[in-house]
Design brief:
Blueprint (H helix, E strand, L loop, with lengths): L11 H13 L29 H11 L9 H14 L1 E6 L8 E6 L13 H17 L1
Helix pairs in contact: 2-4
Length: 139
């Protein structure tokens, strides 16, 4: 079997330094857009997911690392939770499959990498909930 997918030895000092750098770059609860993680094929499918979504990144870090490493960064983490609270949006749409004339409320989040107009998106809402669930486990 090959070793190409083997992880290098865990280096706690490097992880602590990386977390400090990551959380010091947090501004207003999110990180700058940065470089896309993949190139979109055409302009019609841009749902904001070509860039790392802060909730996804934070949840992934909490899942992968020991919880005690996040204690020095509680304030920064709280700024992201505040951002999530401020970005919760509701969109009222017609109920297409139900009683004629009824409306549905869609609630959730929209990627901060998209223009603010528009309703919540499924993928970013799922990541917002995933992030909050992982952060609640830290408490």
């Amino acid at each position: 079997a090959g070793t190409g997918s083997a992880l290098p030895p865990y280096k706690p000092k490097l992880v602590v330094a990386a977390l400090s750098a990551i959380f010091s770059a947090l501004r207003g609860g999110t990180w700058e857009k940065g470089q896309p993680i993949f190139q979109s094929r055409g302009s019609g499918n841009d749902v904001g997911n070509a860039f790392v979504f802060a909730s996804d990144m934070l949840a992934s870090m909490v899942e992968a690392l020991p919880s005690e490493l996040f204690k020095p960064h509680v304030h920064a983490i709280c700024t992201h939770v505040d951002w999530l609270q401020q970005q919760w949006i509701t969109e009222v749409v017609a109920n297409q499959g139900g009683v004629l004339g009824t409306l549905l409320e869609l609630r959730g989040w929209r990627s901060n990498h998209l223009p603010p107009e528009g309703g919540p998106l499924g993928w970013s809402t799922a990541q917002g909930f995933r992030c909050l669930a992982r952060l609640s486990a830290l408490a």
